[in-house]
Amino acid sequence: MFQAPSAFQRAPLPPATRESEPRREQTLTATAPRPAAGTSAPGAAAPASAAAKKRDPYFDNVKYLAIVLVAVAHAWEPVMDGSRATRALYMIVYMFHMPAFILISGYFSRSFDMTAPKVKRLITSVVVPYVLFETAYSLFKRYADDSPDMAISLVDPFFLTWFLIALFIWRVTTPIWQAIRHPLPVALAIAMLASVSPDIGDDLDLQRVLQFLPFFVLGLLLKPEHFQLVRRREVRLLSVPLFAGALLFAYWAAPRMQLGWFYRANSAQEMGAPWWSGAVMTLAMFGCALVLTVGFLAWVPGRARWFTVLGAGTICGYLLHGFLIKGAEYAGLFDRYTWLSDPVGLVVVSLVAAVAVTLMCTPLVGRALKWATEPDMNWAFRKAAARR
Question: What Cα–Cα distance (Å) separates residue 276 from each residue in 189, 280, 319?
Answer without folding.
Answer: 13, 7, 36
